Amino acid sequence: MDSPDITEANRLKTLRNYNILDTASESQFDSITRLISYICRTPIAFISFVDEDRQWIKSETGLNIKETSRSSAFCNYTIQNDTLLEVSDLTKDNRFSGSPYVMDDPHYRFYAGSPITTAEGYHIGTLCVMDYKPRHLNAHERDALKILSNEVMSHLEVRKKNTELQQMLNQARQFQDLFNNSNEIHCITDSEGKIEFINTSVQLLIGYSVDEMLGKTIWDFSVPGERERVMPEVFRAISLGKTHFQVETRVITKGGPIRWFEWSDVIMNGRWLVNGRDITTRKEAELKIQNLSIAVEKSPAGVVIRNAKNEVSWMNEAAEKIIGYKVEELKGRIFGDLLIGEKTDLSVLKSAKQALVERKPYEIEIVVYKKDGTPIWVFISNSPLFNPDGHLESQIGIIVDITLRKHAEQQLIKTRQDAIDLSKSKEQFLSVMSHEMRTPLNAVIGLTRILKEEDPLERQKENLNILEFSAQNLLSLINDVLDFTKIETGNMTLDPAPLEIYKLVSQTIESLRFKSCDKDLRIDYYIDPRIPKVITGDSTRLYQIFMNLLGNAIKFTECGSVMLKLFLEAEDEDSVSIRFEVHDTGIGIKDDKLKAIFDAYTQAERDTSKKYGGTGLGLAITKKLIELHDSTIEVQSTHGEGTIFSFVIRYLRADKNTVPVETNINLDAPIDGRILVVDDNAMNRLLAGKVLGKWLTEIDYAENGQEAVEKVKDNDYDLVLMDIHMPVMNGLEAVKTIRELGGDKFVKLPIIALTASVQRSEEGRFLQAGMNDFVLKPFEPKDLYRKIRAHIL
User: Which of 67, 82, 208, 446 has the fewest CB atoms within 10 Å, i.e. is most exposed?
Assistant: First the structure.
């Protein structure tokens, strides 16, 4: 065995044989330092060679040091061993803790180096990485460090052999053949870059012959602007004394396509020795890899790559964050097995596996469990990749955490259900309140009418008029509140029918004249003669609009006039658009109150309700009713002078053969039939009896649904008036029971609901339960007469 001195002498001799010390930077080595820095994720990487008393840096990234003394070099320890040296924390290793590079700036903390070893076993240098913070290399990083240190040695060997070969080729005739058969362009140029000699490979690589290239420069075949891009840096390097360069340029081939070339240039004896290698494929791959790498790594969506066995091969940081596992924990393991939990829908997983069997991509939404056991919703889009033989090679899965979206969807469903429940509660409340308020009013208004018809004393007439007026006002108040609630809950719809617009307007105006008897007030109307006599519309809702606007106008106008005007705004074959205007010369509205007057329970002034009465709902309801007609209401007003309300409604033309329903009913014509009145309220039964007694001779009564069923079984009735809300058995249950008795008598028996409920949904329930029709309490005698007459001829 050689002594240490002999071994060191041989090592130094071997080092010098490679002629690497004090040479210029070379791309091969620079590429290795950049690569190992990237692989090991360290800010510093370098290739160094150690001679008798110094460490010389051949290539470095992040170091900015060319050489150090051998005694202070960390690599001095590396070359003394055959294995990789890794020091995770330099401050904790006695060999390095006292180094000025550790104690002072730049405060290195981590070092790892692999010896560069010759075939004879001499360690002539190192490939190293360093960091400013303690750390550990993983197995892949250590392997890379060893492999690339061997690659450095390979480059040294190649470099040495190339030098020797060049010397040999310069002396041998075979040089020309080897030169011309290279896969690269080799040429010699003069100091101005004009090509003096070039190998024949140029024709294969860029399409030009040797003769076409001689006497020209490489720049004559390059993309415009390349010389200006590259040469300033070359000239700067020359000014620093450098003679070796490596640049990349784009060359225009003879056929037109542009290709990338890497040029390794050397200045020698006033000439340029140039080697050009086609790196187009590499550049395209680099660009593609770079773009894909950035896109995948930085993607907010998780990306998981699995092999044909469903084992995890790789995943990005987003995937790690979503499921809580690091890629090292899942690599080589079945992805789905670790994420299944109690809430996971196994049928969804089964469908995904079936899609894979069928060689199809799939998309699923499923609950999985993170490493800490937290359940989350994820969207997974999986694409299988097959090799040329058709066998599954890998799978790329995109994972997105959709937990927030799912929670939002669930909350939306719950909110919608809550809204539906609230709407139903409102409807139920409205139905109950309607019944409770209208039932006593039915008795008050009905009996008042009856008393007035029974020739009361003169002193009683005034009291009865006051009673009827008060009851009607209360009914109007209740109707306003209920109508507003119906509109707000979406339960009000239009009921188009043939409408005599002239008749409706004249009757409305006439019905309001009594309100102006004690005022110096003229009430009138104007109708554009071009407006058709009959149109198709909802007369009830239009009448309600008229009454609200005209009633307000009369209320707030002491003298002057109130006018309802109708103008033809537009027309076509199918429809007419009518502009309605209500003018008054009343108190007017202040400008700052014009918008507020349409708000519910709001009036223009605080004392308006005290002075004029009202709920503040009239205009709010009117606005909603006009909007129900797909229109808007406008108001113009001058305080102290008067107001104009206007709106335009489009109506369909009525069929020319349509005859409006006759509204004048002869209430004196008798009806031949027997009727059963069913109502739990004695006053309502009394009232019904008095009204019906004018037309009928046979009237029976029942106090609840059960009693009604028994009476229908035992008697032959021509019609039944059935209340809805009753004890023992309600009206709907009674009707259903009667219909289920079977036979024409019970199935065809006309049954009319006599109800105080106003909900549209209730109307549907009446008909669905088996009712033939319904009458709303308090009822108008003519309405009740018409409904009865329709079933008893």
Answer: 82
CA distance 772 to 270: 115
Long-range contacts of 211-218 (CB under 8 A, 24+ apart): 213/187, 217/189, 217/192, 217/193, 218/187, 218/189, 218/193, 218/249, 218/251, 218/263, 218/274, 218/276
Q: Which amino acid is at 71?
A: S
C-beta neighbour count of 749 within 10 angstroms:
22
What would the two tokens of residue 536 be?
């198709």
User: Token digits for 82?
Assistant: 């055959």
Do β-strands 642-653 and 534-537 pair in parallel, antiparallel, or remain unpaired? Answer: antiparallel
The b/e string for 77-106 (b: 16+ C-beta within 10 A; e otherwise) is bbbeeeebbbbebbeebeebeebebbeeee
Residue 757 to residue 754: CA distance in whole angstroms: 9
Cα–Cα distance measured from residue 128 to residue 101, given in angstroms and rounded to the nearest whole number:
15
Using the 8-state DSSP alphabet, how is residue 489 labeled?
A: T
CB 604 within 8 A of CB 616: no
CA angle, 325 then 330 then 331, to 5°: 140
Distance CA 138, CA 130 (A): 14
**Eight-state DSSP code of residue 198:** E
Give the chain's end-to-end CA distance (angstroms, integer): 136
Strand partners, 276: 185, 263
Q: Locate 177 and state its tokens.
A: 């053949």
The set of residues, in sequence order, having a beta carbon less than 8 Å from that of 360 and lying 6+ positions away, is: 384
Cα–Cα nearest to 91, from 109, 78, 73, 74: 109
Q: Mean pLDDT, 10 residues at a time, over the chain (793 residues)? A: 75 91 91 94 94 93 91 91 93 91 92 93 94 94 93 90 77 68 84 86 86 88 88 86 86 87 86 87 78 69 84 83 84 78 85 86 87 88 85 85 86 79 64 60 65 67 61 60 62 81 87 74 92 90 87 88 94 94 90 73 48 60 88 90 93 70 62 90 81 84 92 92 89 91 88 71 74 81 84 80
CA atoms of 601 and 610, how far apart (whole Å): 14
Q: CB of 603 within 8 A of CB of 620?
A: no
Helix (H) or strand (E) holding 385: strand 375-386
Phi, then psi, of 643 in degrees rounded to 5? -140, 150
Task: Using the structure block, give the residue that is written with the tokens 């029709």.
Answer: 773
- The three-point CA angle 130-131-132 to 5° equals 140
Rounded CA-CA distance 365/371 in Å is 19
- Find out whether 261 and 251 touch, Cβ atoms under 8 Å: yes
Local structure of residue 514 (DSSP, 8 states)? G
Residue 122 neighbours by CB under 8 Å, 6+ apart: 7, 10, 11, 14, 15
Question: For residues 314 and 309, what is the distance between their CA atoms, to the nearest angstrom?
Answer: 14
Residue 58 phi, psi dihedral angles, 5° rounding: -80, -45
Closest CA to 508 of 568, 556, 549: 549
Contacts of 780 (CB under 8 A, 6+ apart): none
CA neighbours within 13 Å on the CB side: how many for 651? 29
Q: How buried is residue 390: exposed, middle or buried, by Cβ count under 10 Å (0-12/13-18/19+)?
A: exposed
Structure tokens at 163: 């030098």
